[in-house]
Design a protein that fits this description.
Blueprint: E1 8-13, H1 17-27, E2 31-36, E3 40-45, E4 48-53, H2 58-61, E5 73-77, H3 81-90, E6 100-102, E7 105-111, E8 117-123
Parallel strand pairs: 1-4, 5-8
Antiparallel strand pairs: 2-3, 3-4, 6-7, 7-8
Protein name: VOC family protein
Organism: Streptomyces siamensis
Pfam families: Glyoxalase (PF00903)
């Protein structure tokens, strides 16, 4: 078990490790930690360590092929959702949902180059 001061890790399986690194570092404020592209890289944002595993990585090979994709996603809090949406659309990125509002705030779903979801969330004030 990791200690509370270590990164929380999430593994995303991607088709193209370098495209995923570029996406997360250019558009979402992640920092490249290590790279063994084309098999693997990891990027960090705050306490989140995102493991980007390409088809040649051991993490991808260990995944049974009959598993379907779920609704899992990483959740990134933003201060101004509309500003982030405009910035990312201006960069040519497309969203996978419309903006949704609820009692806790507003959110929209973005997909990385491999189709993994990222939820951008603005808490209610």
């Amino acid at each position: 078990m990791t200690t509370p001061d270590q990164f929380a890790g999430v593994r995303y399986l991607v088709d193209d490790v370098q495209a995923a690194v570029d996406f997360y570092t250019t558009h979402l404020g992640f920092t490249l930690r290590t790279s063994a592209a084309p098999a693997f890289a990891d990027v960090t944002r705050g306490p989140l360590r995102l493991l980007l595993s390409g088809p040649a990585s051991s993490g991808a090979r260990a995944t049974p092929s009959d598993l379907g994709a779920g609704g899992n996603r990483i959740h990134l809090i933003v201060d101004k959702l509309d500003t982030e949406i405009e910035r990312l659309r201006s960069a040519g990125l497309a969203f996978r949902s419309d903006t949704v509002s609820g009692p806790g705030g507003r959110q929209i779903l973005l997909a990385d180059p491999a189709g993994n979801l990222i939820e951008l969330f603005e808490p209610a004030r």
